[in-house]
Amino acid sequence: MTYDYIIIGAGMGGMAAGLELANNHKKVLILEKNSLPGGCVTTFKKGRFEFDLSLYDLYDYGSLDKKGDIRKLFSDYNIDIETELVPFNARVKDLSTGDDFRVKGNIDEFFVELEKLKSGSADSLKEFLRVIKEINEAVEALKKGHEDLSDYPKFLKYLDSTVIDALTDLKMPRETIYRLCFMWVYLGSPLDKLSFIDFAVFMYRLVFKKRAILKNKNIDMALKMINRYQDLGGKIYYHSKALEIADNGLSNKIVKTSDGKEYKCREVICNVSKRYAYTNLIKIEDKDVNRLENARTLAPNGVMVYLGLNKDCSSLGLKYYHYYQFQNLYSTAVIKNMANLYHGTIDAVVPNVVNEFASPKNTTILVLKTTYFDDALEKLRYDNHIDIKEKIANDLIEQFENTFNIDIKEFIEEIEVITPLNLANYTGTPNGSIMGYMRKSYDNAIHRLISYEDEKIDNIHFVGGSSIFGAGVHNAIYSGYFIASKILESEVNDGE
Amino acid sequence: MENSVEKVRNIRKDIIKDYSSKSLPKTNIDMMVNEVSEFRDVIVKEIYEEAPDVKSFVLVPNKNKGINELEPFKAGQYISIKLTINDIVTTRAYSLSSSPSEALKGYYRITIKRVQDGLVSNYMLDEVKVGDELRVSKPAGDFGYLKVRDEENVIGIAGGSGITPFISLAKAIEEGIEDCNLTVLYSVRTYDDIIFKREIEEFNKKSKRVKFVITLTREEKEGYLNGHLNKEMIEPYIKEFNTILMCGPKAVYKAMNEILLYFNIPRKCVHYENFFSDYKPNEVKTYKLRILTKGEAKVIECKSNETLLVSMENAGIKAPSLCRVGECGFCRSILIDGKIKMVGGVQPKALSENDYFHPCITYPESDIVLKLDI
After folding, report:
1. Contact B360, B329 (CB under 8 A)
2. CA separation for the pair A368, A349 (Å, rounded)
3. Do the beta carbons of residue A368 and residue A400 sit within 8 Å?
4. Alpha carbons B118 and B125: distance in angstroms, whole number
5. Nearest CA to A232 among A9, A3, A18, A483?
6. How far apart (Å, rounded) are the C-alpha atoms in residues A40 and A473?
7. B336 and A CB contact within 8 Å
8. pLDDT at B2 over 80
9. Dihedral, A478, A479, A482, A486 alpha carbons, nearest 10
10. Residue A173 near chain B (CB below 8 Å)
11. Domain map (residue ranges) of chain A
């Protein structure tokens, strides 16, 4: 039999694409190499703790009356996940200047705080809100295929600007720019490389479509998605690692898997990055793809330390949902520093602060994340992996203890350290980065969107965090929906 | 010129076109992955008897099959051997009893005790010869000492063949790979059953950081404690802060729980290796097992006193497995219909709620339909 579509990988993008296609009565098969769906959105158990690998905040979810795209999609597909909207709740510390501020409540409160820290910020912040609204509208129009965006002058004005350039143009004080943008780590590139459009779209969602936390674990959401996909008639085979995508006649594809099986289809949707597909799966060299890949930079990768602590978070003194520690808030310098194994940037999460069910009573989960770039992990080998893992974990724990003056070590009941090597083994993601390609220069999400039709490849499509909209679970899910609907659209056009 | 979508698109195009059209470089992390199989080829270099019905096997990379080195491990980890015995493809997990430094030199050692009617242990002890080829998994498992988590005073509790990971840990401490003091209380039936007698004597003579205390449960002998582990045996080694590592049959853990309560050892300081525990149903019944695998269905028989994994293996089905104690998730299946009894194991709640289970520790209580893509 010939499937309409084969999807390689049951990650967020793959499942979302599968849902959209199955919902439109297509014959779809997902091939997944592991024994669970979800990819990086997964959960592992150690002792009495269940640790979520990657997803803590689901962006672009929104409230019932201000639904974000993800909430809309889940309700369209009839997927019911238990969520709770969370306000800002973070403490941010800059080690070089001693700058130490809290981000609590909604955006107004954050802006008041920013003005308090640096007077003269308020007007530029107000203008910033107006600008990001307009930019978001323009991007929505662009997604629908409209090219004439003259109704959105702010979009056109800043289309070719970095975050630093645009915010400076908005007369925002330097200090305020760095404080406002403290979440750039999440987007994975420094403010002088990050497109203002990408940043504006992200901030628009953060401000107007609230973030949600999952009340249940990551894997619960992944299972709900795959169950629904199967209810809609979609198929998934586990323990099926794709080894090759080959041509099967002029217009069909064939996917060969590690168990010696072959599956025929009309088109293939890869929930793996273009780089992975063209180095591992597609045996015919494509010079255009090579040029594109050589022009891009992989996003930073990282190490995550998962701690199960045997005390509740308030007695430990862990009051904030997020803690951010920076060597300094100046992102360009920070990212240079990330070429070293030990540097001062930590992004920490305490899920118990916003979710009492995150771990058993009187315990706390603390996740410490750090990011690496360039050559930091060049010396990582199998024979020093165990040692490097332990050293990094120890360094992160001690730094966190010192910076925030909180004792952690003596309460550690369980610990797990995940490195890019673990992630590369589990998902196959290039260099073990789960953030796909770095948003920089002309390879921000906005540029990929603008060039989507130009760079499209016949019968092979890409979804997930390494695809069009970049990293982040909401982007991965949305990419699956977006690409699937583009495919369905072109199917209708071809049919006419 | 004013910004436009077209202009930005063209800039991107221009930038990309000047880049090399050569294929893409792999990073060193990418080079380390790209392994299709979980299993590696090794050769049995040496076999020696440790005690009656206990043999150690020294394994080296099978260079003829392109394997030149062994993956490093942390003391306490296991490897799983994959074997085909009488057309049955099966696996068994064994803790490594060699030092982590020896893996870097190119060899692993595992130590296997004969289990009555045990398919694999009898095969390994009776059939396997020096020079034979075997397939083993990468080292896996979480059991062991972690400096950032654990106290400096480590008390090991070993029952029977549960001694193996502690020999590895003792060596790692002696060689400075791990940094703690270790006292192992080793409970074994008789003097003859003691595994690693010579190595244990060496440690007790020479080591400042490692000590083994042996208790014989079914024999009295001078120089050895007698009877099951109890408070009095452990008391001399308890300090203000302790970490307890346990490896052995469930009965040992049960007995220890009470003892640890007595010494007020907090839960966070106690870690144990999952050990396979036997389960005996009230009566042995035979059921039908239907396996849905990638769009095909196979029907075999299963028995209420046999795990579903064993039933599948016995029927010639190549079901994936590794740890066989419900931990690694390799054999993970979905229950479509029927009633099962899962004994032990760990998995997130959402998986249990969605009928996921581990056939390696699961017994049927009715006819079963399961989905397992092989």
Report:
1. no
2. 7
3. yes
4. 11
5. A18
6. 9
7. no
8. no
9. -170
10. no
11. 2-41+218-296+443-495, 104-209, 298-427
Q: What is the dihedral of CA B266, B268, B271, B275, to 10 degrees?
A: 90
Burial pattern B260-287, b for ≥16 Cβ within 10 A else e, equals beeeebeebbbbbbbbbeebeeeeeeeb
Question: What digits encode the pLDDT tens for the residues B152-170?
Answer: 999 999 999 999 999 999 9
Among the listed residues A10, A54, A45, the one whose alpha carbon sits nearest the alpha carbon of residue A474: A54
Interface list for A 438-457 with B (CB within 8 A): 441-443, 446-447, 450-451, 454
Which chain B residues contact residue A272 at CB under 8 A?
A: none
- Amino acid making up residue B201: E
Q: What is the pLDDT of residues B325-358, one digit of tens each?
A: 999 999 999 999 999 999 988 899 999 999 999 9
Partners of residue B12 in chain A, C-beta under 8 Å: 442-443, 447, 450-451
Contact with chain A for residue B9, Cβ under 8 A: yes
Give CA–CA dist A310/A408, Å, rounded. 10
ipTM of this complex = 0.95
> Is B320 touching A (CB cutoff 8 A)?
yes
Structural domains of chain B ordered from first start: 39-137 (2.40.30.10), 153-272 (3.40.50.80), 286-371 (3.10.20.30)
Region A287-301: mean pLDDT is 94
d(CA A446, CA A439): 9
Q: What global pTM score does this model have?
A: 0.96
CA distance B371 to B354: 12
Q: A residues 220-259 near B, CB within 8 Å?
A: 220, 223, 227, 235, 237-241, 243, 258-259
With beta carbons less than 8 A apart as the criterion, state whether A319 and A345 touch. no
Window 32-61 of A, Cβ < 8 Å to B: 35-36, 43-47, 50
In terms of DSSP bridges, do strands A252-257 and A242-248 run parallel, antiparallel, or are they unpaired?
antiparallel
User: Which residues 29-88 on chain B approach chain A with CB closer than 8 angstroms?
Assistant: 29-30, 32-34, 36, 71-74
Which tokens go with B209? 């950081």
Measured CA angle at A289 (ends B28, A3), to 5 deg: 100
Q: What is the pLDDT of residue A135?
A: 98
A432: contact with B, CB 8 A cutoff: yes
Among A323, A316, A314, A318, smallest CA distance to A90 is for A323
Q: Residue A267 is encoded by which pair of tokens?
A: 């088109």
Which amino acid, B157?
A: I
Q: Please indicate whether, in this complex, the C-beta atoms of A160 and B8 are within 8 angstroms of each other.
A: yes
Helix or strand run (H / E) with residue A246? strand A242-248
Instruction: Name the 3-class secondary structure at A346.
Output: strand
CATH fold of A2-41+218-296+443-495 reads FAD/NAD(P)-binding domain (3.50.50)
Tokens of B50: 């440790």
**In contact, A25 and A233? CB cutoff 8 Å:** yes
User: Which residues on A lie below 8 Å from B350 (Cβ)?
Assistant: 43, 216-217, 219-220, 223
Q: Which amino acid is at A385?
A: H
Model confidence at A72, pLDDT cuts 50, 70, 90, reads very high
Instruction: Quote the CA–CA distance of A239 and B329 in Å, as a whole number.
Output: 12
What is the number of other CB atoms lying within 10 angstroms of the CB of residue B181?
Answer: 17
A78 touches chain B (CB under 8 A): no
Q: Indicate yes or no: CB of A425 within 8 angstroms of CB of B147.
A: no
Place of tokens 């890019």: A420
pLDDT band at B25 (very low <50, low <70, confident <90, very high): confident
pLDDT at B36: 55
State how far residue A145 is from chain B, nearest Cα, in angstroms: 11
Interface A-B, measured as beta-carbon pairs within 8 A, has a size of: 172
Give the per-residue SS3 of A56-98: CCECCCECCCCECHHHHHHHHCCCCCCEEECCEEEEEEECCCC
Q: Please, how many CA atoms are within 13 Å of residue B66, restricted to the half-sphere of its CB?
A: 2
